[in-house]
Amino acid sequence: MSLTKAERTIIMSMWGKISAQADAIGTETLERLFTSYPQTKTYFPHFDLHPGSAHLRSHGSKVVAAVGDAVKNIDNISGALSKLSELHAYILRVDPVNFKLLSHCLLVTVASHFPVDFTADAHAAWDKFLSVVSSVLTEKYR
Predict the structure, then answer these.
(1) What is the predicted pLDDT for the residue at 127?
(2) C-alpha 20: how far from its chain's center?
(3) 3-class DSSP state for residue 121?
């Protein structure tokens, strides 16, 4: 699945706003993930999973930074996220379905932070982009 020029433009233009709130968006995304899909907590037994904890803020920042790497390398997302894919497949052994769950939570969080910018076209572009990111992160599982 490839992104159209219009979709790339939407992703890149919204990224500036998202990256300015990266810590808050990352933390809220993880809080939403763990609340909506509590089974995902099993991968973080050493984390304090209380809302706003230092662990959630730190890991949330990493999540959004990885999405930022994908945005910055929108023409080579696979190359940009290859090491992250290897980490999650071979070392952490994260169930691939969790990337889709996380993507959904990020999508909802972005929509709640930017309701004016999050038009139907933006929703479709971000959904498609995050599907590509999820697919790339599961490449090493095959």
Answers:
(1) 97
(2) 15
(3) helix
